[in-house]
């Protein structure tokens, strides 16, 4: 951190999240150096620490995507207006958020280009050229890209005019194949978000009012943040044959008949970084899941007498060697900051484990570990560090997930009627589970009275099976 950021107040003065969660969130994101505001309205600069977190997330999800047979590609940022205009429902859904390019240099373009809000149109156009036979199917493509949606109200990571994401686009020979792909990728997202980001989610189907523009059905994973609001953490769309008919994506089947393909699309974005902050953060700042944390353990050398410095730093070198490459370790040996200031800094930045090394630790041949999540202290002998440190990180990963799961359970209630739902949201937030048979009027009335939306109809209906009495139930919440 710079000298101007290096004062004690910079590290310690955070708004209490129970007083003003929104302000706390913005302070943590900026002070922990995840991101900052850009000079372009609604846009952000992702700083190196935030980008390292995103890269760890990206790499782990990318591996899962490739393991399921998908290949990465890249499509242009600019989409001709004529392509976008082919699909009326899709255009209507995104029109208020589209940014347009009208000039190339000083010359007005003959046709406007939109800065992609999503890529169904241009990918559909390309698929119509690439797919000819059933032998070309399934076509399984993913791209990592940036997207622009001209949002009116923005917040760092959660909703910005430009953000980073991945979007998968697949084409299949049958409806059953496409539906299996939709649910397969939803499960990939659930596994990634729960096991790597330690965020418990509800996988489920969206209502028709909440589905993606142009889709036959949309499925999502829904998480609950510490302020009681829901976060849509990922979506998987069954596009049916809608876009295939619009863009004339056909194939010759094994009987020689010309058929339209069945399509899917699915994606997650940098809003998951915001989800990590809001799921795990506390009044001292971030608490990062070790699996994706840029720094998993920080070593803080401690000495008061100048003659102790060499011995401590020599032992620190041995600590670094003992930890090995399996742990992302950082040694902070800066002289201009006190150990106490460093403790506050790395708590703010959510580093899972702090390793303190002072003269007494050197004499004992051990390091003192401090967990970020519980602040529990444990002396670890140097010869045990290679096994104990990874185990400790695993314990923290599991503990963060269980803590978030308990919070979700404590803030999920059952309601039998619209009146009970309304009464709940007058006093509290969180998820409300309630019977729902697909009645759009009921869904709209809940939204009008409470500002809560139907987040999903969970695929696993067992949680409230007894109370539902055989009826299907849905989750409502106020959301980001």
TrEMBL record:
Taxonomy, superkingdom: Bacteria
EC number from the UniProt entry: 6.1.1.15
InterPro entries: aa-tRNA-synt_IIb, aa-tRNA-synth_II, aa-tRNA-synth_II/BPL/LPL, Anticodon-bd, Anticodon-bd_dom_sf, Pro-tRNA-ligase_IIa, Pro-tRNA-ligase_IIa_arc-type, Pro-tRNA_ligase_II_C
Pfam families given in the database record: HGTP_anticodon (PF03129), ProRS-C_1 (PF09180), tRNA-synt_2b (PF00587)
GO BP field: prolyl-tRNA aminoacylation
Signal peptide: none
Chief location category: cytoplasm
Single GO cellular component term: cytoplasm
UniProt KW keywords: Aminoacyl-tRNA synthetase, ATP-binding, Cytoplasm, Ligase, Nucleotide-binding, Protein biosynthesis
Top enzyme class: ligase
Molecular-function annotations in GO: ATP binding; proline-tRNA ligase activity
Location(s), subcellular: Cytoplasm
NCBIfam families reported for this sequence: proS_fam_I
Main function: Catalyzes the attachment of proline to tRNA(Pro) in a two-step reaction: proline is first activated by ATP to form Pro-AMP and then transferred to the acceptor end of tRNA(Pro).
Domains: entry comment: Consists of three domains: the N-terminal catalytic domain, the anticodon-binding domain and the C-terminal extension.
Assembly, per entry: Homodimer.
Listed name of the protein: Proline--tRNA ligase
Source organism of the structure: Eiseniibacteriota bacterium
């Amino acid at each position: 951190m710079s000298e101007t950021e290096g004062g004690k107040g910079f590290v310690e003065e955070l708004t209490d999240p129970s007083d003003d969660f929104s302000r706390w969130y913005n302070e943590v994101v900026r002070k922990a150096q995840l991101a900052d505001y850009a000079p372009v309205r609604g846009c952000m600069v992702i700083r190196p620490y935030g980008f390292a977190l995103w890269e760890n997330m990206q790499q782990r999800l990318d591996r899962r995507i490739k393991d399921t047979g998908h290949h990465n590609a890249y499509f242009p940022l600019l989409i001709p207006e004529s392509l976008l205009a082919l699909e009326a429902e899709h255009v209507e859904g995104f029109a208020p958020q589209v940014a347009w390019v009208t000039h190339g240099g000083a010359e007005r373009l003959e046709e406007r280009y939109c800065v992609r809000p999503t890529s169904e149109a241009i990918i559909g156009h390309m698929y119509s050229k690439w797919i000819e036979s059933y032998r070309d199917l399934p076509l399984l493509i993913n791209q990592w890209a940036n997207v622009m949606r001209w949002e009116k109200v923005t917040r760092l990571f959660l909703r910005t005019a430009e953000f980073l994401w991945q979007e998968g686009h697949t084409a299949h020979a049958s409806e059953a194949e496409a539906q299996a792909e939709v649910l397969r990728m939803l499960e990939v997202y659930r596994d990634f978000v729960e096991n790597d980001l330690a965020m418990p989610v509800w996988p489920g189907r969206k209502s028709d009012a909440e589905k993606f523009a142009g889709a036959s059905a949309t499925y999502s994973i829904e998480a609950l943040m510490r302020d009681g609001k829901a976060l849509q953490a990922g979506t998987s769309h069954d596009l049916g044959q809608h876009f295939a008919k619009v863009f004339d994506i056909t194939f010759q089947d094994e009987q020689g008949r010309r058929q339209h393909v069945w399509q899917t699309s699915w994606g997650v974005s940098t809003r998951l970084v915001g989800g990590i902050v809001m799921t795990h953060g506390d009044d001292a700042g971030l608490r990062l899941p070790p699996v994706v944390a840029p720094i998993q353990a920080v070593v803080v050398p401690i000495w008061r007498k100048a003659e102790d410095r060499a011995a401590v730093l020599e032992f620190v070198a041995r600590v670094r060697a003992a930890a090995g490459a399996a742990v992302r370790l950082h040694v902070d040996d800066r002289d201009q900051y006190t150990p106490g200031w460093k403790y506050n800094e790395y708590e703010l930045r959510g580093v899972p484990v702090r390793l303190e090394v002072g003269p007494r630790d050197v004499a004992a041949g051990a390091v003192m570990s401090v967990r970020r999540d519980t602040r529990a202290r444990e002396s670890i002998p140097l010869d045990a560090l290679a096994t104990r440190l990874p185990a400790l990180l695993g314990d923290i990963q599991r503990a963060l997930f269980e803590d978030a799961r308990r919070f979700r359970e404590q803030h999920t209630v059952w309601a039998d009627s619209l009146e009970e739902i309304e009464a709940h949201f007058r006093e509290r937030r969180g998820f409300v589970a309630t019977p729902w048979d697909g009645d759009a009027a009921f869904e709209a009335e809940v939204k009008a009275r409470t500002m809560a939306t139907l987040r999903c109809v969970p695929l696993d209906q067992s949680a409230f099976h007894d109370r539902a009495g055989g009826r299907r139930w849905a989750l409502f919440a106020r959301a980001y």
